[in-house]
Amino acid sequence: MAAAEVLKVEKLTEKLQETHIEEEGVSTEAGADAAAKKKKKNKKKKKNGPKTQTEPPTVPVSKIYTSLVYPIGELHDYVDDNLWRTTSEEKRAEEKLKEEDFNDVRRAAEVHRQVRAYAQKVIKPGMTMTEIAELIENGTRALVEEKGLEAGIGFPTGLSINHCAAHYTPNAGDKVVLQYDDVLKVDFGVHVNGRIVDSAFTMNFNPKFDTLVEAAREATYAGIKEAGIDVRLCDIGAAVHEVYDSYEIELDGKTYDIKPIRNLNGHTIEPYRIHGGKSIPIVRDSGDETKLEENEQLAIETFCSTGRGYVVEDGECSHYARSTESGFVPLRLARAKSLLATINKSFGSLPFCRRYLDRLGEEKYLMGLRNLVEAGVVTAYPPLVDTVGSYTAQLEHTILLRPTCKEIVSKGDDY
C-alpha cells in the first residue's frame, strides 16, 4: 500500500474512534440522567407508612395508628337482665355519641400497653426506683405526645415494694434499689383530654411469690366479671373476697392466708379525676348497695397481703393532688400562691409528685406545698403500708360500661 493511502486509512480510523468515544459519553450521560429520573420517580412514589415501636419506646401511637382510631379493648357481653343491650339498636345509637370519648380512652390504653411491655422486659433487680420511674414516664410522655392538660401522665408512677401497697414513688435523692426478693407493684396512668387509663401489675423475680401474684390476678378478674350496669358494689366485693379466701402461700416454711386489703378499693374514674364518686370494695361485708351505671368508667383493682390485710399511712410523702372541693381559700404565703399557679396550669386536678415539680423548675417549694396542704387546697397521699415483713400484690384494669357491652379497655397480651 502506498504511503499516502496508509496515512488516509490511519486518519479515518482515528476519526471513527473519536466518534465512538463521543457516542459512548453521550450514552453514559443519558443513562445516568435516566437512572436519576427513575430514582427520583421511585422516591416520589414511596409513602410514609405506619411506624413500628422502638426500644425504649419513643414513637407516638398516633404515628403507628395513622387513622387515629385506636384498638378496642376486650369486649364482654352483659349477662342476665342486661343481655338485651348487646343487640339493642337504641343503645348502639347512644354509643356512637360517646365514640370520641371512647377513642381518647383507647389511645391512652394503647400508650399504657406499649410502655408497660417495655417496662416488664427491662425492669430488673439492681435498678433504682428513680430509673424505673423515669423509663416509664419518659415512654408515656413520648407515646402520648404530652401537651399540657390535653395529654400526658395520669398520675405519679407507683412503685410500691413488699409491705408498701400503694402511693410510693421516689422523691429526688431516693436511693432505693430493687432487690431479687422484692415484690414490686407498678401502677401508672395515662390521660388523653382528661380521660384516664389506670392500670397496674405486680412483678416478682423470686418464683416463691408466684402464688401471691396469681391471687391478685384471679381476684381482679372475678371483680371484672361481676361488674356491670346496675350491679351492686357489694356484690363485686363479695366476688373478689371469695377468690382470696381460696388462696394461701408458703414462704420460708411458714404458711400464710392471702387476705384482701380491706381498706383499699377500686373506683370510678371521671374526666381529670382519678377517683370518681364511687369506691368499689374488695371485701364481702362492705354493705354498699350502690349500683354501677351506664357509661361509667371504672378501675377494678384488688390488693392482697400476707399481713393483716389493712394499710396505714407511713413514710415520706410523694403523691399530691389539688382538691376539687376546697373552693377559694385565701393564702398568705407568696410562695404558696405561685406554687398553686404552677399546679393549676400543669396538673389541674390530676395527681402529681415532687419529681414533677422539680422537672418544671420549681425550687424550695416544700414550705409552700406544706402550706397548701394545711389550707386544704392540696391533699397529700402518703405511702400506704401493711405490717413490716409482709408482702402485698395488686392487679388493676380500666373498664368502660358501654351501653351495649363491657370493655376492658386496658387489656393486653400480658394481663
From TrEMBL:
Tell where it localizes: Cytoplasm
Essential cofactor(s): Mn(2+); Co(2+); Zn(2+); Fe(2+)
Q: Where is this region: Disordered?
A: 12-59
CDD domains, alphabetized = MetAP2
Entry similarity comment = Belongs to the peptidase M24A family. Methionine aminopeptidase eukaryotic type 2 subfamily.
What's this protein's function? Cotranslationally removes the N-terminal methionine from nascent proteins. The N-terminal methionine is often cleaved when the second residue in the primary sequence is small and uncharged (Met-Ala-, Cys, Gly, Pro, Ser, Thr, or Val).
What is the official name of this protein in its record? Methionine aminopeptidase 2
Starting at the broadest rank, the lineage of the source organism is: Eukaryota, Fungi, Fungi incertae sedis, Mucoromycota, Mucoromycotina
From the UniProt record, report the name of the gene that encodes this protein.
Answer: MAP2B
